[in-house]
TrEMBL record:
Pfam families in the cross-refs: DcpS, DcpS_C
Any one GO molecular-function label of the UniProt entry: RNA 7-methylguanosine cap binding
Cited Gene3D superfamilies: HIT-like, Scavenger mRNA decapping enzyme, N-terminal domain
Family: Belongs to the HIT family.
Listed name of the protein: Scavenger mRNA decapping enzyme
Entry-linked InterPro entries: DcpS/DCS2, HIT-like_sf, Scavenger_mRNA_decap_enz_N
Species of provenance: Exophiala oligosperma
Amino acid sequence: MATNPPETKSQAESLVPQFQLERVLNQDQNGRRISLLGAISSQPAVITLERAAFPTDSTLVTQLLSSLTNTTNLGANDIYRWYMADRRANFAPSSETGSVSPVLPQMHDLKLNLIYPCTPKHVQKYSSQRVRMVTETPDVYSRHVRPYMSSQRAAGRLDWVFNILEGRTEQEDVIARCDWDSPSNSGFLILPDLNWDRKTVQGMHLLALVQRRDIWSLRDLKKKHIPWLRAVRNQVIKTATTKVFPAGQVEPDELKCYVHYQPTYYHFHIHVVHVMLEAGTTQSVGKAFGLANIISQLESMAGDDDETGMDGVDLTYFLGEENELWKKCFGRMKSGDEVDLNVK
């Protein structure tokens, strides 16, 4: 039986320019990958375009930074800023005319987040590091982690949050305020997360910042908070499905609501994302705790004491080895050393 000869490299490369688009099949990975249906020589074909990995060589990274153009600021708050930017088109001489023409058209294809001036904690957060799973008991929480949280709140690291809540910054980005003037201090506001480009439906990522300041993390949630948590969750879903995109474009069962532990900052906030948003580290087990599951866990806790809560359960989560809680607490516990969160 005759077989076709192996395809050469040049033959394979010649196929892509022949692709004729019929329609877009899918867009995923927060808009960084797109699948297309089309045809090549009248035969059906599917092509997937994905943005290539960024270079790590310092010379190439410098060239990449110097190629940025049309940088447009989307917002700024304290030391945090975010932008959209283009990469300047590459140019090459035309084989027919000898003139210089762009190889690729200019595209609005990069989202930039700038933290300036950054702190050592920011450097730590964004650095590659080994990760460890830890179990935080109620005793470890009360003796070590809770005091650590208090010290972090006292260091002025929540200024950007209070700027938003008190109306000094990002007010044009606020999508909704709910129960804002309630005497029970139960209000919250919803705005885009800085990691969302604010356009891609399946990349939608919202943030609900609560008005009250007595809840630092999910550890502070108690049975008495169940009605409030349910109301917040319902209102967040209603807002996300009616005020972000045209009604019907996003439905309630296309949303995930979760909180982080450990969170990046100790002021209670809820993440709301589209279920099709590719689940990276921040949505993974050991980082994200589903809000509906937290409510259910609180409801199932024994007893009628409204003060019973998440401070009385073991929590298992991951920490990077550069995280202070690993280096000064859990890592020292593992090696049999005394915990000291004041160690330099």
